[in-house]
Amino acid sequence: MGNKQSSATSSSNASIRQRFERAGKTGILSLAGAGLKELPGVFEAGLGDNVIGNVRSLDLSGNKFTSLPSTIGGFSNVKMVNLANNAFTSLPSELFTLSKVETLNAAGNLLGLLPDAISNMTSLRTLNLSKNSLRSLPASMGKLTNLRVLVVNGNRLTALPPSIGNLSNLEELNADDNQIEVIPSEIAKCGEIKTIRVAGNRIEKEGVPSEVFTETKVTLVDLERNPIKDSDIQQIQGFDAYNARRKTRVDQTAPTI
């Protein structure tokens, strides 16, 4: 029995080492779905800085990680980091030193807090924090001015920070299935916003500022499964203009025969 376990471990380490060797050539390091609880010694060794420095895509999704070694900070050129579907309760501080990351996926973990240091990741274009246990988002997120897509559905958020209005390039917000009562009027400052998804929250009529309709280019505001009634939505100033934009969007995306 012991020999079989030893053989399986050796085989696993060999497979991981092979993935590292390939990463040195391709720039893609994937350990997704490997059932790992911690990163093996080969990761700490890194097979040399030439491998770590060459990695552009790092996929650690679908494992059982609760933490990562400080070595993660050595991936200085990585642009995509996937930590989805693990067991992180917090993200390693070294992660926030990776200033070239454009896509960060930490969905499906146990995160209860997002630190202010997220603001250091100024190259972020897509941030996915869905299906965690977040109760709030830090005001410092407003410094992520390159962010295009923010996904925070399936958390425990009671509000969105006013600093969201500083996300001048934000195009899509998904905050479905939280406990949000008000869409912050500051979101109207997001000049590129097209989609606002806040279904399954606690939003009533007073929670939808008219600026959402009158001062944005938004073509979809999803308010399904909220206390607010359709008739109340239709009475909000600017709804008719928004509805015209929404219909145009639907027409443009409809399949042609």
TrEMBL record:
Alphabetical UniProt keywords: Leucine-rich repeat, Repeat
Keyword Ubl conjugation: no
Alphabetized SMART domains for the sequence: LRR_BAC (SM00364), LRR_TYP (SM00369)
Highest rank taxon of the organism: Eukaryota
InterPro entries: Leu-rich_rpt, Leu-rich_rpt_typical-subtyp, LRR_dom_sf, LRR_domain-containing, LRR_R13L4/SHOC2-like
Entry-linked Gene3D superfamilies: Ribonuclease Inhibitor (3.80.10.10)
Residue ranges constituting the Disease resistance R13L4/SHOC-2-like LRR domain according to the UniProt record: 55-153
GO cellular component assignments: cytoplasm
PANTHER family found in the cross-reference section: PTHR48051, RAS SUPPRESSOR PROTEIN 1
Protein name as annotated: L domain-like protein
Originating species: Gonapodya prolifera (strain JEL478)
Phylogenetic classification of the source organism: Eukaryota, Fungi, Fungi incertae sedis, Chytridiomycota, Chytridiomycota incertae sedis
